[in-house]
From TrEMBL:
The chain crosses the membrane at residues 12-31. Residues 47-166 form the General secretion pathway GspH domain. It comes from Telluria mixta. Belongs to the GSP H family. It is found in: Cell inner membrane. This is Type II secretion system protein H. The keyword Glycoprotein does not apply. It is a single-pass membrane protein.
Length: 186
């Protein structure tokens, strides 16, 4: 009886090199799209978190019958990228005390830029609601205050628009009409 030479199972080195080369090309094409997808999701999450904080401030102002504010955690009151705080401003000093703090959010993902454009553009930046649930000025609960907070990341834009009555909405200028605001930073 003759025995046939046995064929080795597995792949040869040239076959393995071809598979690795094709995989590298496909991965090279997909990586930029994945980065863009991550940026879009980071922006969507940051916008949703800030919108939830604004909504919480309005609900708490209605429930408490007092002014509730959302302010950046930045000591100068200008940089929303450092996060924000929602608080019941009982003493009217514009800064939360430990007993007044309702919620707090940490820093945003690196690369996210935020622009704040309200009827009063002077610092410190804030969003305030009076006991009736209307957006208001810091020193006068009867004075309406409205505007837009714009968030930018990797060519994507989301805006939170607050109208005179204090109602907030999220919009995307790429698909929604009436979603104007600050231009994207260079």
């Amino acid at each position: 009886m003759h025995s046939r030479p046995r064929r080795a199972d597995g792949v040869t080195l040239p076959e393995l090199c071809i598979v690795l080369a094709v995989s590298a090309i496909v991965l090279g094409i997909a990586v930029p799209d994945l980065r863009d997808l991550v940026r879009a999701q980071q922006l969507k999450a940051a916008t949703g978190d800030l919108f939830a904080a604004i909504d919480l401030a309005r609900a708490q102002a209605l429930a408490r019958g007092r002014r509730v504010k959302v302010v950046p955690r930045d000591p100068l009151g200008a940089d929303w990228r450092m996060g924000w705080q929602v608080f019941d401003d009982r003493d009217g000093d514009g800064h939360p005390g430990m007993d007044e703090l309702i919620a707090e959010h940490g820093p945003l993902a690196p690369g996210i830029a935020v622009d704040f454009a309200f009827t009063n553009v002077a610092r410190p930046y804030y969003i305030a609601y009076n006991g009736a649930g209307r957006s208001c000025a810091d020193g006068n609960s009867a004075a309406a205050r409205w505007g837009t907070v714009s968030l930018f990341h990797g060519g994507h834009i989301r805006r939170i628009k607050i109208n005179m009555l204090g109602r907030a909405r999220v919009c995307d200028p790429a698909r929604d009409g009436g979603c104007d605001g600050a231009p994207a930073p260079p």
